[in-house]
Amino acid sequence: MTTTSEARPDLHVRPFRPELQSDVLDLIVGIQRDEFDIDITAEQQPDLHDIPAFYQVRDGNFWVALADGRLVGTIALLDIGNHQGALRKMFVRRDSRGSKSGPAQRLLDILLDWAGSRSMREIFLGTTAKFLAAHRFYEKNAFSEIAKSGLPPAFPAMSVDTKFYRRRLERPATPIRERAAR
Question: Measuring CA to CA, how many Å separate 123 from each of 134, 141, 156, 157, 160?
């Protein structure tokens, strides 16, 4: 499934494919290290070396945003069981950040639609204190800050994460055939 933003016809979001592996690593590690001075390497993030096996299993997925064929953003949903997911690896190139119709909003909307269609009830995420714009973005999108102690046991907290958020999802409507069977 590839989707195109109405406001940016050059923006396409699609599930990750292995030919984008090196671009994904470059984007994420570049933002972490060069832009935010976080002391982390690609080797310290084994999930990025086998994205299909780590994220694209059960009800999880990993999406990329491409503008004019260039990778501009990523987002991942890790299925942690119990109808819960972990939002991970949300990164957008500096020159593509900002607008409501930009890659960040489009990536998040797709993740939330996916999670809801798979009966997930809550999405959790961890981030660093340095990502101030990300905090505002999550809060504008109905995520509430929670204490680390409020995370489910299966949540994969990273050592650099110091702020945590949760978003409760509305339960999807019961399909007509299931209601008729009751």
Answer: 16, 12, 12, 13, 19
Report the alpha-carbon distance of residue 8 to residue 130 in Å, rounded: 28
pLDDT at site 50: 95
How far, in whole angstroms, is CA 142 from its chain's centroid? 15
Q: What is the rounded distance in angstroms from the CA atom of residue 175 to the CA atom of residue 181?
A: 10
Residues 154, 157: Cα–Cα separation, whole Å: 9
Q: What are the boundaries of each domain within the chain?
A: 3-181
Phi and psi at 89, nearest 5°, equal: 55, 40
Give the pTM: 0.86
Q: Is 120 exposed, middle or buried (0-12, 13-18, 19+ CB in 10 A)?
A: buried
State the pLDDT at residue 37: 83
Superfamily of domain 3-181 in the CATH hierarchy:
Gcn5-related N-acetyltransferase (GNAT) (3.40.630.30)
- How confident is the model at residue 5, as a pLDDT? 43
User: If the chain, 182 residues long, is cut into consecutive pieces of 10 residues, what is the mean pLDDT of each piece?
Assistant: 56 96 96 88 92 97 96 98 97 83 91 96 94 92 97 92 94 48 42
Q: Nearest to residue 89, comparing CAs of 2, 165, 24?
A: 24
